[in-house]
Amino acid sequence: MLYCHKFLLKIWLGNSSLLFLQEDFGGGHPDPNLTYAKELVERMGLGKSSSNVEPPEFGAAADGDADRNMILGKRFFVTPSDSVAIIAANAVQSIPYFASGLKGVARSMPTSAALDVVANNLNLKFFEVPTGWKFFGNLMDAGMCSICGEESFGTGSDHIREKDGIWAVLAWLSIIAFKNKDNLGGDKLVTVEDIVRQHWATYGRHYYSRYDYENVDAGAAKELMANLVSMQSSLSDVNKLIKEIWSDVSEVVAADEFEYKDPVDGSVSKHQGI
After folding, report:
1. Residue 20 has what pLDDT?
2. How far apart (Å, rounded) are the C-alpha atoms in residues 116 and 109?
3. In a domain? residue 208
Protein backbone atom coordinates (compact mmCIF):
# COMPACT_ATOMS: atom_id res chain seq x y z
CA MET A 1 0.00 0.00 0.00
CA LEU A 2 1.43 3.38 -1.02
CA TYR A 3 0.13 6.69 0.30
CA CYS A 4 1.12 9.85 -1.55
CA HIS A 5 -0.42 13.24 -0.72
CA LYS A 6 -4.18 12.72 -1.19
CA PHE A 7 -3.83 9.55 -3.22
CA LEU A 8 -3.91 5.92 -2.24
CA LEU A 9 -2.60 3.38 -4.72
CA LYS A 10 -3.43 -0.14 -3.69
CA ILE A 11 -2.99 -3.04 -6.04
CA TRP A 12 -5.48 -5.58 -4.72
CA LEU A 13 -3.93 -9.04 -4.57
CA GLY A 14 -6.38 -10.93 -2.38
CA ASN A 15 -6.20 -10.93 1.40
CA SER A 16 -2.46 -11.34 1.64
CA SER A 17 0.64 -9.55 0.45
CA LEU A 18 2.10 -13.02 -0.11
CA LEU A 19 -0.42 -13.83 -2.83
CA PHE A 20 2.16 -14.98 -5.37
CA LEU A 21 3.35 -17.60 -2.89
CA GLN A 22 -0.11 -18.94 -2.08
CA GLU A 23 -2.08 -21.20 -4.39
CA ASP A 24 -5.40 -20.13 -2.85
CA PHE A 25 -4.74 -16.36 -3.17
CA GLY A 26 -4.66 -16.04 0.59
CA GLY A 27 -8.23 -17.30 0.84
CA GLY A 28 -9.52 -14.49 -1.36
CA HIS A 29 -10.76 -14.37 -4.96
CA PRO A 30 -8.32 -12.95 -7.53
CA ASP A 31 -10.85 -11.07 -9.68
CA PRO A 32 -10.60 -7.25 -9.43
CA ASN A 33 -14.24 -6.23 -9.13
CA LEU A 34 -16.64 -4.70 -6.61
CA THR A 35 -17.61 -8.10 -5.24
CA TYR A 36 -14.23 -9.69 -4.63
CA ALA A 37 -12.06 -6.64 -3.82
CA LYS A 38 -14.28 -6.06 -0.80
CA GLU A 39 -11.66 -4.56 1.53
CA LEU A 40 -10.59 -1.99 -1.06
CA VAL A 41 -14.21 -1.16 -1.94
CA GLU A 42 -14.93 -0.51 1.75
CA ARG A 43 -11.79 1.62 2.09
CA MET A 44 -12.84 3.74 -0.89
CA GLY A 45 -16.21 4.50 0.74
CA LEU A 46 -18.32 2.28 -1.52
CA GLY A 47 -19.22 -0.41 0.98
CA LYS A 48 -22.56 -0.91 2.68
CA SER A 49 -21.17 -0.19 6.13
CA SER A 50 -20.56 3.44 7.08
CA SER A 51 -17.15 4.63 8.25
CA ASN A 52 -15.85 7.84 9.77
CA VAL A 53 -12.53 7.42 7.95
CA GLU A 54 -12.21 9.72 4.92
CA PRO A 55 -11.61 7.63 1.77
CA PRO A 56 -8.49 8.21 -0.35
CA GLU A 57 -8.86 10.03 -3.68
CA PHE A 58 -7.65 7.10 -5.78
CA GLY A 59 -7.71 3.34 -5.49
CA ALA A 60 -6.92 0.51 -7.88
CA ALA A 61 -7.10 -3.26 -7.96
CA ALA A 62 -5.53 -5.96 -10.10
CA ASP A 63 -5.89 -9.73 -10.33
CA GLY A 64 -3.24 -12.33 -9.52
CA ASP A 65 -1.04 -11.70 -12.56
CA ALA A 66 -1.98 -7.99 -12.74
CA ASP A 67 -3.35 -8.10 -16.27
CA ARG A 68 -6.88 -6.98 -15.35
CA ASN A 69 -7.64 -3.86 -13.33
CA MET A 70 -10.32 -1.89 -11.52
CA ILE A 71 -10.21 1.89 -11.02
CA LEU A 72 -11.90 3.62 -8.08
CA GLY A 73 -12.22 7.19 -6.90
CA LYS A 74 -13.46 8.44 -3.54
CA ARG A 75 -16.92 6.84 -3.23
CA PHE A 76 -16.86 6.35 -7.01
CA PHE A 77 -16.48 3.33 -9.31
CA VAL A 78 -15.21 3.63 -12.89
CA THR A 79 -16.71 0.99 -15.17
CA PRO A 80 -14.16 -0.81 -17.38
CA SER A 81 -16.01 0.43 -20.48
CA ASP A 82 -15.71 4.04 -19.33
CA SER A 83 -12.11 3.51 -18.22
CA VAL A 84 -10.77 2.55 -21.64
CA ALA A 85 -12.77 5.35 -23.30
CA ILE A 86 -11.43 7.95 -20.86
CA ILE A 87 -7.85 6.74 -21.26
CA ALA A 88 -8.20 6.98 -25.05
CA ALA A 89 -9.77 10.45 -24.88
CA ASN A 90 -6.95 11.81 -22.70
CA ALA A 91 -3.98 9.75 -23.88
CA VAL A 92 -2.32 12.18 -26.29
CA GLN A 93 -2.36 15.06 -23.79
CA SER A 94 -1.62 13.09 -20.63
CA ILE A 95 0.60 10.13 -21.51
CA PRO A 96 4.00 10.87 -23.15
CA TYR A 97 4.04 7.48 -24.93
CA PHE A 98 1.07 8.63 -27.04
CA ALA A 99 2.23 12.21 -27.64
CA SER A 100 2.51 11.61 -31.39
CA GLY A 101 -1.08 10.38 -31.61
CA LEU A 102 -3.11 7.16 -31.54
CA LYS A 103 -3.10 4.63 -34.39
CA GLY A 104 -6.58 3.42 -33.52
CA VAL A 105 -8.68 2.01 -30.69
CA ALA A 106 -10.62 -1.23 -30.18
CA ARG A 107 -13.09 -2.84 -27.78
CA SER A 108 -14.68 -6.25 -27.39
CA MET A 109 -18.28 -6.78 -28.50
CA PRO A 110 -19.79 -6.93 -24.95
CA THR A 111 -18.09 -3.65 -23.99
CA SER A 112 -20.22 -0.49 -24.08
CA ALA A 113 -20.05 1.93 -27.01
CA ALA A 114 -18.33 4.65 -24.95
CA LEU A 115 -15.09 4.07 -26.88
CA ASP A 116 -16.94 4.24 -30.21
CA VAL A 117 -18.01 7.81 -29.49
CA VAL A 118 -14.47 8.86 -28.54
CA ALA A 119 -13.10 7.32 -31.74
CA ASN A 120 -15.73 9.09 -33.84
CA ASN A 121 -15.10 12.47 -32.19
CA LEU A 122 -11.31 12.19 -32.44
CA ASN A 123 -11.42 10.72 -35.97
CA LEU A 124 -9.64 7.53 -34.89
CA LYS A 125 -9.73 4.10 -36.49
CA PHE A 126 -12.15 1.97 -34.47
CA PHE A 127 -12.55 -1.81 -34.22
CA GLU A 128 -15.16 -3.96 -32.49
CA VAL A 129 -13.77 -7.46 -31.94
CA PRO A 130 -14.97 -10.73 -30.38
CA THR A 131 -14.04 -11.58 -26.82
CA GLY A 132 -10.42 -12.74 -26.70
CA TRP A 133 -7.20 -10.75 -26.53
CA LYS A 134 -5.77 -12.40 -29.67
CA PHE A 135 -8.00 -10.15 -31.80
CA PHE A 136 -6.52 -7.05 -30.16
CA GLY A 137 -3.06 -8.57 -30.61
CA ASN A 138 -3.52 -8.91 -34.36
CA LEU A 139 -4.51 -5.25 -34.65
CA MET A 140 -1.62 -4.05 -32.50
CA ASP A 141 0.93 -6.19 -34.36
CA ALA A 142 -0.30 -4.66 -37.60
CA GLY A 143 0.10 -1.12 -36.25
CA MET A 144 -3.65 -0.45 -36.37
CA CYS A 145 -4.48 -0.09 -32.66
CA SER A 146 -2.89 1.82 -29.78
CA ILE A 147 -5.42 1.36 -26.95
CA CYS A 148 -7.96 -1.41 -26.35
CA GLY A 149 -10.16 -2.80 -23.62
CA GLU A 150 -13.02 -5.05 -22.56
CA GLU A 151 -15.80 -4.90 -19.97
CA SER A 152 -14.28 -7.82 -18.08
CA PHE A 153 -11.71 -5.41 -16.56
CA GLY A 154 -8.99 -5.82 -19.19
CA THR A 155 -7.23 -2.74 -20.58
CA GLY A 156 -4.08 -2.48 -22.68
CA SER A 157 -2.00 -0.66 -25.26
CA ASP A 158 0.46 -1.55 -27.98
CA HIS A 159 3.45 -1.38 -25.60
CA ILE A 160 2.81 -5.09 -24.96
CA ARG A 161 0.69 -7.75 -26.67
CA GLU A 162 -1.48 -8.41 -23.60
CA LYS A 163 -3.81 -6.65 -21.19
CA ASP A 164 -1.81 -4.78 -18.53
CA GLY A 165 -3.46 -3.76 -15.27
CA ILE A 166 -0.42 -1.94 -13.92
CA TRP A 167 -0.22 0.13 -17.11
CA ALA A 168 -3.91 1.04 -16.79
CA VAL A 169 -3.40 2.26 -13.22
CA LEU A 170 -0.39 4.35 -14.27
CA ALA A 171 -2.38 5.71 -17.23
CA TRP A 172 -5.06 6.92 -14.83
CA LEU A 173 -2.49 8.48 -12.52
CA SER A 174 -0.99 10.29 -15.53
CA ILE A 175 -4.42 11.64 -16.48
CA ILE A 176 -5.08 12.81 -12.91
CA ALA A 177 -1.64 14.47 -12.78
CA PHE A 178 -2.29 16.26 -16.08
CA LYS A 179 -5.74 17.46 -14.99
CA ASN A 180 -4.16 18.91 -11.82
CA LYS A 181 -0.98 20.38 -13.36
CA ASP A 182 -2.21 23.95 -12.83
CA ASN A 183 -3.51 23.19 -9.36
CA LEU A 184 -0.43 21.89 -7.54
CA GLY A 185 -0.77 22.63 -3.85
CA GLY A 186 -4.32 23.84 -4.32
CA ASP A 187 -7.25 22.89 -2.14
CA LYS A 188 -9.52 21.63 -4.94
CA LEU A 189 -8.29 18.47 -6.55
CA VAL A 190 -9.67 17.39 -9.95
CA THR A 191 -10.82 13.97 -8.83
CA VAL A 192 -11.54 10.66 -10.53
CA GLU A 193 -15.25 11.45 -10.32
CA ASP A 194 -14.68 14.91 -11.84
CA ILE A 195 -12.79 13.37 -14.77
CA VAL A 196 -15.50 10.79 -15.44
CA ARG A 197 -18.35 13.31 -15.20
CA GLN A 198 -16.49 15.70 -17.52
CA HIS A 199 -16.15 12.81 -19.96
CA TRP A 200 -19.89 12.08 -19.77
CA ALA A 201 -20.66 15.77 -20.37
CA THR A 202 -18.51 15.71 -23.51
CA TYR A 203 -19.24 12.29 -24.99
CA GLY A 204 -22.46 11.14 -23.32
CA ARG A 205 -22.97 8.32 -20.87
CA HIS A 206 -23.42 4.63 -21.64
CA TYR A 207 -25.23 2.32 -19.23
CA TYR A 208 -24.95 -1.45 -19.24
CA SER A 209 -25.29 -4.41 -16.89
CA ARG A 210 -23.39 -7.67 -16.71
CA TYR A 211 -24.80 -10.86 -15.20
CA ASP A 212 -22.83 -14.08 -14.92
CA TYR A 213 -24.73 -17.38 -15.00
CA GLU A 214 -22.79 -20.43 -13.88
CA ASN A 215 -23.54 -24.16 -13.88
CA VAL A 216 -26.47 -23.75 -16.27
CA ASP A 217 -27.85 -26.59 -18.39
CA ALA A 218 -26.00 -26.54 -21.75
CA GLY A 219 -29.04 -27.63 -23.76
CA ALA A 220 -31.26 -24.98 -22.24
CA ALA A 221 -28.59 -22.32 -22.79
CA LYS A 222 -28.31 -23.22 -26.50
CA GLU A 223 -32.09 -23.11 -26.83
CA LEU A 224 -32.16 -19.66 -25.22
CA MET A 225 -29.52 -18.31 -27.61
CA ALA A 226 -31.27 -19.81 -30.65
CA ASN A 227 -34.50 -18.16 -29.55
CA LEU A 228 -32.78 -14.78 -29.27
CA VAL A 229 -31.45 -15.15 -32.82
CA SER A 230 -34.90 -15.99 -34.17
CA MET A 231 -36.50 -13.05 -32.35
CA GLN A 232 -34.25 -10.61 -34.20
CA SER A 233 -36.25 -11.05 -37.39
CA SER A 234 -39.05 -8.92 -35.93
CA LEU A 235 -38.06 -6.23 -33.45
CA SER A 236 -41.64 -4.93 -33.46
CA ASP A 237 -42.77 -8.23 -31.91
CA VAL A 238 -39.88 -8.07 -29.45
CA ASN A 239 -40.85 -4.56 -28.35
CA LYS A 240 -44.51 -5.54 -28.06
CA LEU A 241 -43.53 -8.42 -25.78
CA ILE A 242 -41.34 -6.14 -23.67
CA LYS A 243 -44.03 -3.47 -23.35
CA GLU A 244 -46.45 -6.06 -22.00
CA ILE A 245 -43.99 -6.78 -19.20
CA TRP A 246 -42.68 -3.25 -18.58
CA SER A 247 -44.69 -0.49 -20.25
CA ASP A 248 -42.29 2.46 -19.88
CA VAL A 249 -39.06 0.79 -21.03
CA SER A 250 -37.27 2.15 -24.10
CA GLU A 251 -37.62 0.24 -27.36
CA VAL A 252 -34.97 -2.07 -28.75
CA VAL A 253 -33.61 -0.22 -31.81
CA ALA A 254 -31.06 -2.75 -33.10
CA ALA A 255 -30.09 -6.39 -32.64
CA ASP A 256 -27.68 -8.74 -34.37
CA GLU A 257 -25.60 -11.86 -34.00
CA PHE A 258 -22.03 -10.59 -33.99
CA GLU A 259 -19.64 -11.77 -36.69
CA TYR A 260 -16.09 -10.48 -37.11
CA LYS A 261 -13.81 -10.46 -40.12
CA ASP A 262 -10.23 -9.83 -39.00
CA PRO A 263 -8.83 -6.96 -41.12
CA VAL A 264 -5.32 -8.35 -40.66
CA ASP A 265 -5.52 -12.04 -41.58
CA GLY A 266 -8.98 -12.19 -43.13
CA SER A 267 -10.23 -14.88 -40.74
CA VAL A 268 -13.96 -14.87 -39.94
CA SER A 269 -15.33 -15.52 -36.44
CA LYS A 270 -19.05 -16.34 -36.44
CA HIS A 271 -21.63 -16.67 -33.64
CA GLN A 272 -19.71 -14.37 -31.30
CA GLY A 273 -22.67 -13.15 -29.28
CA ILE A 274 -26.19 -11.77 -29.60
Report:
1. 39
2. 11
3. no
Q: 213 in a domain, yes or no?
A: no
Q: How many helices (H) and strands (E) does the chain have?
A: 8, 11
Q: Give CA–CA dist 92/26, Å, rounded.
A: 39
Predicted structure pTM score? 0.87
Which has the closest alpha carbon to 131: 210, 216, 222?
210
CA distance 59 to 219: 42
**In Å, how far are 6, 7, 89, 155, 174 from 85, measured between CA atoms?**
25, 22, 6, 10, 15
Q: Point out which residues pair with 70 in neighbouring strands.
A: 61
Are residues 133 and 246 located together in one domain of the fold? no
Residue 175: DSSP 8-state: H
- Report the alpha-carbon angle 232-235-240, nearest 5: 130
The Cα 204–Cα 125 span in angstroms is: 20
Amino acid at 135: F
Please tell me the predicted confidence (pLDDT) of residue 50: 66
Sign of CA dihedral 91, 96, 102, 107: negative
Report yes or no: 31 and 68 within 8 Å, Cβ to Cβ: yes
Domain interval for residue 97: 80-183+192-203
Q: Given CA atoms 175, 176, 180, 185 in this order, what sign does their dihedral have?
A: negative
Residues of the chain with pLDDT under 70: 1-26, 50
84 shares its domain with 199: yes
Name the domain boundary from 46, 78, 110: 78
Give the pLDDT of residue 55: 93
| Residue 12 belongs to some domain of the structure | yes
CB of 234 within 8 A of CB of 222?
no
